[in-house]
Amino acid sequence: MTSGLSVRDLTVTFPVAGARHRLTAVDAVTLTVRPGETHGLVGESGCGKSTLARSIVGLTVPDVGEVAIGDQTLPRRRSHDEQRRVQMVFQDPISALNPRLRVRDVLTELLRVHRMVPRSAVEERCRELVAAVGLPADVLDAWPGSLSGGQRQRVSIARALALEPEILIADEVTSALDVSVQAQVLRLLLDLQARLGLTVLFISHNLAVVRQICDRVTVMYLGRIVETGPTEALYSDPQHPYTRLLLESVPRLDRVELPAAADTEAPDAAHLPGGCRFHPRCPLAAQVCLDSDPVLRDGPPDRAAACHFAWPQRTEEGT
Amino acid sequence: MSALLEVSDLSVSIGATRLVQDVSFSLEESSALGLVGESGSGKTLTLRALLGLDPRGARVTGSVMFAGEQLVGRGERAMSRLRGAQLAMVFQDPMAALNPVQRIGKQIAEGPRLHLGLGRAEAAARTLELLAKVGLPDPAATARRYPHQLSGGQRQRAMIAIALACEPKVVLCDEPTTALDVTVQAQVLRLLHSACSELGAALLFVSHDLAVVRQLCRQVAVMYAGRVVESGPIEEVFGRPRHGYTASLLRSLPDVDAPSEPQPIPGEPANPRNPPPGCPFHPRCDYALPDCATERPELVEVMVGRRSACVHGRTGLPELERMAR
Q: Would you list the DSSP string of B105-167?
């Protein structure tokens, strides 16, 4: 059965060394990933996308907020079975795999601890898993160190699939790979999702890759969701100025001029500006942006943006 | 007119393994050349070898002529007089390249003091000028900071200030924006471009990111398994590639402006320690002919200003549908 994932009002804060205040990495985020969809989560470093992912799998305990699979809210302390249902694949397949365990041992351990199959069927299941990620059976005898980056990332995916999760969180899974191999891993993800009915949260800073494989996209900036919507609608008609800035900044093969973005960087997350937190970098910033923090507001069906100036025509129609 | 930097048949071996083989390219004054390829293609090692920064135990052969002087085989003292003065470098990870326990200002002033013989006060004034030029806020305050007190983008700006400090003839960059966020990357690229053109410095830019190279460079050399497989004016090479690898690499890039499907190149990049026989790309190549498995085409001029090491180099790559038959 395919289940969706929902995150409700999730906030995660961290202590700041030598200071009394705490840093809010994820700020009251509400996110719905529909059953069977690939949902892209994009944003620059420090925007909270990885912290959000870690709280969804249970690696980071949120201050407040809930994570639910289908209609079942996961408790703060998850049972083995609840852990099993959400699995994560990490960015760096070198540090994600224990260098002292052969691929077979990695998979066998998981299958046994979680009692996924009877003992007698473990070896066969291992073979099925490596075959499912497009690797030959002799990879089972290999040490992670002897595999290429692409092969290691496939092993990480096989490890996540071993527990037959309903939700797969892919955190920058192709960032460490060469482009030619990146496309292989993306195809594999698309293929697995179609075959297994997985719900995928695909976290990436690479907007072109997200456009290739995601059904819907959510953009984060400094711990908040600033825009969300179906991929094609969002890419062809971005409403939040930050989404536009991100898209404009991507270097393109068919464009010789360098993007003319303003020379600004995201402020320190521990010292957020008042009002809209994007206003110091925003070409549209007006007095209202200094005075009030925009909430995520619905636009056309299925879309929302946290900007005072999103969908101007609609606002006028509505009043 | 001869080129400012002329690299011919540069090879680098470590033990019995040749990691860079017969690499040749030339860089004209005030021009920009991109050296692109995937991991293990030898692009970084090429850059390091021509600066005399090749790893211990490496054997470098061939020729690197810079402003009429041979650099291969030069002693470390002679090379260190050139590096930072006429040949400046910007590396990928500014956190690793900057000295963590020295203030930014001192690190920028070091070059002008050493290479240009400036006094303390003159060098300090030059430092403030450079910090302002690379767009760092409040130069006087930034000069007193340590690297960890700057953001990633600011550290890369500081690296560029160090590189520009002695008005180099060539700026050599190794993936200078790979560690940066996309909005900051755009800023740093613009800075590099304007700084080099203002100084009249030539740019040698090593990157795996074809789109970044497209925006900065007029010439490109594509590397695979330690060799240059194709080179020429960038709009021609990227527009009508004449090597199977270049064509496949371009196709595998996702497009941010339109929906597209992932188009992988099958297999893994060739292992330089154990390259396949014949053309090193043939096992992954959609355009391969039977001969490609046994014979490796040399890099030859196939059109004016364009070189290719592909069996299809002279005729152009065939349509893939025709190949499938």
A: HHHHHHHHHHHS---HHHHHHHHHHHHHHTT-SSHHHHHTS-GGGS-HHHHHHHHHHHHHTT-
CB contact under 8 A, A251 and B193: no
Partner A contacted by B209 (CB < 8 A): yes
Residue B48 placed within a domain: yes
Q: Over chain A, what is the mean pLDDT?
A: 91
- Whether residue B152 sits in one domain with residue B33: yes
Residues B127 and B251 in one domain: no
Share of chain A above pLDDT 70, in %: 96
Report how many domains make up chain A. Answer: 1
Mean pLDDT taken over chain B: 92
Tens-place pLDDT, residues A199-248: 999 999 999 999 999 999 999 999 999 999 999 999 999 999 999 999 99
What's the predicted TM-score (pTM) here? Answer: 0.91
Domain count, chain B: 2
User: CB distance B190–A183 less than 8 Å?
Assistant: no
Best residue in B187, B193, B238, B243 for a mutation probing chain A (most A CBs within 10 Å) = B187
Are residues B267 and B180 part of one domain? Answer: no
- Specify if B222 maps to a domain: no
**CATH number for B189:** 3.40.50.300
Model ipTM value = 0.88
Helix axes A122-132, A149-162, angle to 10 degrees: 130
Mean pLDDT of A126-146: 95
Contact between B284 and B276 under an 8 Å Cβ cutoff? The reply is no
B74 and B163 share one domain: yes
Q: In this predicted model, what pLDDT tens digit does every residue of A143-188 receive, in sequence order?
A: 999 998 899 999 999 999 999 999 999 999 998 888 889 999 999 9
Q: Where does residue B69 rank: exposed (0-12), middle (13-18), buried (19+ CB within 10 A)? A: exposed
Q: Residue A198 maps to which CATH number?
A: 3.40.50.300
A179 and B262 in contact by Cβ < 8 A?
no
pLDDT of residue A266: 83
B268 in contact with A, Cβ within 8 Å:
yes
Check residue A107 and give its pLDDT: 96
Maximum distance among all alpha carbons in chain A?
A: 69
Contact flag A253-B208 (C-beta cutoff 8 Å): no
C-alpha distance from A172 to closest chain B C-alpha (Å) = 13
Cβ contact A44–B135 (<8 Å): no
Q: Which residue, among B213, B246, B214, has the nearest Cα to B229 in the 3D structure?
A: B246
Q: Which residue of A has its CA nearest to B237?
A: A253
Of A181, A183, A235, the CB nearest to B263: A183
Inter-chain CB proximity A261 and B187 less than 8 Å: yes
Q: Say if CB B6 and CB B12 are below 8 A apart.
A: no
Selected residues 85-144 of chain B with any CB under 8 Å from a CB in chain A? 135
Q: Final residue of a domain: which of B160, B185, B217?
A: B217
